[in-house]
Design a protein that fits this description.
Shape: globular
Largest sheet: 8 strands, mixed
Structural class: alpha/beta
Number of domains: 1
CATH topology: Rossmann fold
Strand order of the largest sheet: 1-2-4-3-5-6-7-8
Radius of gyration: 18 Å
Oligomer: single chain
CATH class: Alpha Beta
Distance between the termini: 42 Å
Strand content: 15-25%
Amino acid sequence: MKHLLFFLLATAAIAADDIRTEHDVDYLGAGRKEKADLYLPANPKPGQKFPAVLIIHGGGWSGGEKRAAREINIGTTLALHGYVGMSIDYKLAYKEGKEPTWPQNLHDCKTAVRWLRANAERLQIDVDHIGVIGGSAGGHLAAMVGLCGGELDPPGEGNTRVQSAVDLYGPVLWFEQRDISMFRKSRAEATDLYKQADPRTHIDNNDPPLLILHGDADTTVNVADSQALADAMKAAGATYQLEIIPGAPHTFHLQPKQRDLRPLVLGFFDKYLKPR
């Protein structure tokens, strides 16, 4: 707890000097309580354009929030290195709820991509270079945003495609192994829905590059889930990179004690989101 408090205070001090933030931005419109936080480079020059990255929190599709330690770490890191970061809340499947939240949770993420493009002029965003990153359930949704460009889009107009995606230890094999609350139906009752939500269903060789990160000490989502996704990407001839982090458990951010992942993740986004 002391380590987490120190990290948050240190991050806040950095952000106060080197980046700008906008909290609780309404990106879904009237009637929705879920909001977004923006992480922006400080002192942009007139006419300067920045790539943008959507940040999706985890929590088993039923919990978590946009301003947790991992999301602050990612958003701050991105803004410090010339990106606009957008960390979102999205529709969650709480235990007391009865309505399914799939595919509304994915629709919320895709709506956020549209929002970034619609607000590109004010935020100085390069609309042709947008990425996505997420952890755990957010990793699954990040992979889905990347692999479902033009598929499973929410109603309305606007481009939902991204140019790269980073999946931090997102569930994959779960969709053929267990029942998941966001569907409000068992696998036996909704085989097609579970298949629809499996990232492997949507892979082809036109997908944007995908970076997959997983710790081999993860006891929540087995590293085999990420290996299965990588195997499917390889079989389809899609562009991907799988990095297994020795000793890392579940829910790490970009600076776990096992390895500083900032050079890897920033290098990946720089390659695909910063035109040369």
